[in-house]
Structures
1.
Amino acid sequence: MPPAVPRRFIMTAAVAAGLVVLVGVGFLAWIGTGRGLVPVEPASPNADDIQLLYVFVGAFASAIFLIVTIPLAAFTIRFRRGRRSRDEEGPQITGNTNLELAWTAGPILILVAIATFTFIKLSGIANAPAATDALDVRVTGRQFYWQYEYPNGVITIDRLRAPQGRVVDLTIVAPVWDVNHSWWVPELAGKRDAIPGVTNHTWFRATRTGVFDGRCAELCGVEHAFMTTSVEVMPSAEFDQWLSSETRAQQQGSSNLGGEVFQGVCAKCHGPQGQGAYARAIANNPIFADADATRTLLDNGVQNGTRVMPPVGRGWSEQQTQAVLDYLQKNLAPQTGGTTAGG
Amino acid sequence: MFTGDTYNELFTMHGTTMIFLAVVPVWAGLANFLVPLMIGARDMAFPRLNALSYWLFLAGGIVLYSSWFAKGGAPKAGWTSYVPLSIQIPGTGQDLWILSLHILTISSLAGAINFMVTIHNMRAQGMNWMRLPLFVWSIEVYALLLLLTLPALSAGLTLMLLDRQAGTHFFEPDHGGNAILYQHVFWFFGHPEVYVMILPAFGIISEVIPVFARKPIFGYKAIAYSTAAIGFMSMLVWAHHMFTVGLPTGLQALFMITSMAIAVPTGVKIFNWVATTWRGNIHFDTAMLYALGFIAVFTIGGLSGIFLAVFPFDWQAQDSYFVVAHLHYVLFGGSVFALIAGLFYWWPKIFGRMLDERLGKISFVLVFVGFNVTFQPQHLLGLLGMVRRVYDYPDESLWNTYNLISSIGSYIMAAGLLVILANMLVYGRRGVRAKNDPWVADTLEWYATSPPPPHNFDDVPYVTSARPLRDLRRQLQEARV
């Protein structure tokens, strides 16, 4: 006759379950203080809901961890060898069907609960709320920079400015000749890959102003580590003001777009002054005095043995290309070449 | 410290080495020795195929490491080598990586076929499937998974090689190829591969815990069937590595559910191991300490897997240090802890000498503490937004703190591993001579001498249960009385 479910086993399990509830509550309280295991404080409803999922799963996960480890510790201490010999056997219990059923059904119920809660929260995370004043931004991931394009054609590199409280819809792409990237600003939204040939979407609605740092999360080559980005959330009115002044400046060619591109696109490999870093020095390179040659370079990139410069400027608008050419000619071309000297 | 290039080469080689040259072949090696012994056979079914498998493994390793001297340096697209990056990288390192994996694939396939034929045909008389040692069960499923999924890897790598060298465009979007297709093909192999690496670890734990608790395994059938269930389900979860590529929501939900479901048979195993210790006579030999440590840390690795299966959370955690922590809890806290347990347990059988227990226990404390100090903070780094595969990061105080803690932990862990190495070098050859059955164990390998002769056994007892050696001991006792 198989041995009955041992009473002490049940008792221990009950004590463990009690402790689990206590620690689970403690865990939730700790999270609630905002200084616990979730140091990134969400600043958008979707990031907020993801955090809620994390806490929900965390409570169950902590409970299961304790259900396993407390009996494990208790049994190994209580039933340690002591002075017994190796020959002495414990009771020959080979199993118990009811227990097997219990620890199969229990986890299933927990997983059903987690899945159900996920589905409840899903649409609030995945789908942007319908909004008439939503701002559409096209995000392009490229080796090794993020290009943001506003609906009116304004372009920024690596820094996205966004209005507080408005839905920002992001369309995330990578040029077909590029590699995979992944856009991730943890305070605002989960990551979404930028894959050549694929169009992805995500969104956020920033609940507070500030600068939120993000980075490329998919290995994209040698300067993957420096493919960082940031989102500057401004009060809505301030944003509108910035956008209109930037629009004017970019149309007139008086913006700092050229400098922004240089810092985001060129400087990561060639150094902030073009003095050389991973890639060669480009300061005082005569090619920058020749606009056509520079255009070709930006459009085709370079393959020099096993080192490659990606075609960083392929597909840029004329306005963007011109801004960069002007900047390069003014700041990096040799100063003795007769061109007007720049700063 | 490094340039981006060198760093990318290092983590690519680290991942590839640990998976293809360390964990998978180490199970093949251990199983090669143990499977025939545990089922009462004289050798593996095809000894020459076995030799072929070994020499191909060696060749694959040499090809991979020769890439350090290749034009353009070692491969640097990560162990997953996602396209299009892996197609665009110039030089020959990436091609050597593909060649090496092709060679290792053939090696693994040869080994897998050999294991299956051996287990199916060469069991001792009376050893039916419900009397098969649980480690052998795990090797059966290990072999089956390799057999079913390695061809997918071969196909994917061949297409990658053609794209690189023959001008085809299977994965190149600028010529109409599909970059996501590679990820599907890779992970159809890659996720079962995770279970290829962890199932034999489960098998070892299922052997070690009953022997050192002096009890039969709790729920033999449940553990055996859950091994098969995990193997089957592991082939249905691959897209949980791809939650951020923009799959349709329904598909993501499906893969969330299958990924969660795999936790059920895994949980069954864990609960059965814990129950096995109940009312035992628990001996804290080094093998048992590592096995108990395994249960604790592997549970953490399994639970962080539940977080990652919840796909909206994965949108945050994917490719962050949270994933790095998770996979090391599973592969180091899981596979490597079990491997060390297995080494201490079977060393006397393999080499005829006992490893030193005191050094073993010191190593356990160092490795257990060092491991947790190294990898626990990486969960938090991931939640803080640190992505993997970056050689440098902006100076943020919490990141620095957690990374520093992690580095300190890695030195503690390395010290523990050095103690194990010293133990093997010193006591492995000069330790106390091992008796045939030093642990008073249950399975047939302890019936042979330590070390066993080339033909393993002169005779094998008729097997009437999953614990033939214990049966034999009892018969002898009764005969004496």
Note: The two ends of chain A are 93 Å apart (CA to CA).
2.
Amino acid sequence: MAISNDKEFKAALAALDNCDRRQATAYLIRQALDLTQDARVKAGLDLAVRCDASEMEFSTAAAGVNSARVASYTQCGHDANWTCQAAHFVARAAQECVKPEVSAGEAWEAAMQARMARICQHIAAGEGTSNREAEAQYRALEDYLQAKGSAS
Amino acid sequence: MSASLDKGVRVLKEMIDAPIASYFSSCVHCGICAEACLFYTETGDPKYTPIHKLEPMRRIYEQEYTLIGRLKKLAGLAKAVTDEELAEWQELVYNSCTLCGRCSVVCPVGNDIVYMVRKMREGMSAAGHSPDGLKGAVTRTINIGSPMGVKLPAVKAQMKHVEADYGIEIPLDKEGAEYLVLLSSMEIINFPEYLGAIAKIMRHVGKTWTLSSEAFEATNAGMQIGNSDLARVIVSRIVAGAEKLKVKTVISPECGHAYTALRWEGANLVGRPFSFQVQHIVEVLEEFRAAGMLRLEGMETDRLTFHDPCQLARRGGVIQPQRNLMKLVAKEFVEMPDAGFMNWCCGGGGGASSIEEGEILRIEAFQRKKKQLDVVKPDRLVTACANCRIVMEEGLEHYKMDLPVIGLAETIAEHIPDPQ
């Protein structure tokens, strides 16, 4: 399945069942994992790709991801460090999928947070407003769907 | 006396105007202001009594402007204000005061203690005794135009992101638009969803609006540190941007002090009336609601409460509009004790959240908010100030309270039906 715009991207996410959608969302966010060093976020995404994770595991991981999200806010009056802010948005994205059920809206929200993280990286690098993360996400979702199709 | 102390004392003398003199001479030392200050109630330390935070200024007032004080000074019986003393008072004037105004409204003789603290900050700032965090914010405001160093390319990047997310064009520099929307640095950096919510709401009500490439920043670090000249420069940028685009209304964002600086002090700072009106986003939304323009769908079914930002509710008098808006979307809206006019501060306003060395004290003071929340046990907490939002999230995280905090504008926007 080829994905070339956000409409198709959203439709593909919406068509997945719950566990697959959570897996796919975590897979999308992992594309932006280079933007964070926080082990709690990585652990949360590792859990999100598992279909056998328990409620307790989700609860513990969600608390860790939330701590990472809150800790990485830029506080009022502080100098904006866009590299750190990128890590904040990765944590926000991860928060959307460290839960038993991920709706299509939450999956989209997670994807947008990951794109915002990449934008922060570009701002930090002085690379203007170009953002190729959307394209990268289309390819990642295609890959996921293809792998899923081959496995089934 | 060092040059900076000399300057600071001189500025403090200049700051003692008729209201300050009458406030000092009226104070009956009752201590009621202490019970109104969350830094005192949560620590029990009497040094956080609001009127005590002004002690160096009171002594200057006494020694310079009262007969007995002058005689004592001549006789060598008066204790001069020292550099060390001002250094010690920095914590009291900045870290432990959010300019929330609770002390002012409980004072039985009507002393506006916030007014006094702000005057005191002018002298402290001139003497070099302001916190490094605030100094940095001021330097960035002068050099870059934003206390957090946000430049136009970052705003444009966020605009592009929001356009993709919401599928709505974000107008920039549109002359003749009805509304000029300002953003706080906090919203640009942390909460792009605020801009998305504005875009959605404006499309829904059919109003024209714009951002300005020359005046997008609302945060006023000059007001926070106690530098009227800088506060004037920041307001002047907004005035110039608004007048250039010929807008009718400037919308102050979900940021407390930005609203006070522009709405209540802006015209006095620039020395002339504005050619536009200033409204907080909550006031604008309330106007839309009252005119029947917000045709929302669905209700939140969990238990929601609202944290009133001090500058909006107590200092700004905007109390009922946010409640009317909450009731539009919340089936179960509950009020915390002391909500509204007497609400307790988040603990990080007035520049306090930018002071790193004040973090432990802020967390201690947050226990007051925790007590308010413990009474009503909400599922989510709504507010209309990006700074309150982050300060409260940090407090909630510290006390292991699982309570999401959300913005009012985005909460309203979520209930706007998609266009056909």
Note: The helical segments of chain A are 6-14, 18-30, 39-48, 55-71, 82-95, 104-124, 133-151.
